Amino acid sequence: MPFVQFNWEIKNATSSDFLDRLIIFLHQWRLPLLFFIAGIGANFSLTKRSLSRFYGERFVRLFIPLLFAMFFTIPLQVYYEWLQKGIIKMSYLTFYPKVWELIPYPEGALTWSHMWFVVYLFVFTILLLPIFALFKFNFIQQLKLKADGLFKSPLALILPIFLFASIYFYFYNDWPEQGSLLDDWFVFNFSISLFLLGYLLGDLPSFFTTAERYRSNFLITALMAAALQYIFFWEHLEWRKLTSSTDIYQYGFINSVMIWCLIVAILGYAKKYLNFNHPVLVYLNEAVFPFYIIHQTIIVAIGYYITKLDWPIILKLVVLIILTSLAMFTIYQYLIRKFKLTRFLLGMKIKNYR
């Protein structure tokens, strides 16, 4: 992100057109994929827990890490951003008390930054509790399970595309992406739909079996849709401003096809090739949320110094990726994973390690 022209915490003096377009593509589906997977996770969790226990678990594993990140890790991002922009010239220890003034960013130093994803998940959990409660009734759950047979056809798997396209049509132009929760209606409605779909489809075996069987078809369809987006919109970096109704219908439908088909393809390939237990998968599965919490702070901190170097962008990018990965694994392994307090603060289950 330091090497693209889009707004971010720290910026390189020059940007890369290739990385601009790569980030545009990745940006479309990476968070939608996570929201859908989070919905599946909610389904699994609720099969083993009462509604009250589920909410308590979500509070501990979402809200506590959110507060910890906002007050103890994300401030470092604001510090380096303001330092690079010349807003401040002071040490981090001098800067840090500004966080506790509780003035929201950008006027102040308090922000949830990339943790907006966690904010939305926690809010979705609260808003959807009545629906979760409804499916705790056995006869309603059984009615849903009877729909499993519908998903033996790949045609059933494409139906959500029309839901997502309608959200584009009604919200995309008027409510641009912000991650601010209260005035972010395109992202809010798109994301809660994915989360709810993940919950509803999470225990339907035919959905995953069909995704696996037709994974290549969905992947090819997604890549074709992405190619169309590049041809008509993404090649021109003003693509976010869709000025005509024709543009929004075309953009919204093609993007919905790409996002949903790519999600289904990824689930299909994961079921085919990752449906087994292995120590590495167990390790990474436990590490993924702490990685998400700390990754951007590490990128910003290291990137601040790398962007000052007179190196080609590709060299800066490779060094940034290597150093960030090493820092994340080191911090996770030695400062987070082995201690009860840090596991609690970063949303992990508490275990004993020797």
Lay out the secondary structure.
Layout lengths: L16 H32 L2 H23 L1 H11 L6 H4 L20 H12 L1 H6 L3 H9 L7 H4 L2 H12 L13 H17 L3 H9 L1 H20 L10 H29 L5 H28 L6 H24 L3 H6 L9
Helix pairs in contact: 1-10, 1-13, 2-5, 3-14, 9-10, 9-13, 11-13, 12-13, 14-15
Give an account of the 3D structure.
There is one protein chain. This protein has 354 residues and is mainly α. It has two domains: 17-74 and 112-275, no CATH class; 277-354, no CATH class. 69% of the residues lie in helices and 0% in strands. It has 16 helices and no strands. Helix 1 (17-48) packs across helix 10 and helix 9 (160-171) runs antiparallel to helix 13 (245-273). The protein is globular. The model has no long low-confidence stretch (mean pLDDT 92).
Approximate helicity band = 55-70%
| Poorly predicted runs | none
**How do the helices and strands follow one another from N- to C-terminus?**
HHHHHHHHHHHHHHHH
| Biggest sheet layout | none
- Roughly what fraction of the amino acids lie in strands? under 5%
Mean pLDDT: 92
As for the number of domains, it is: 2
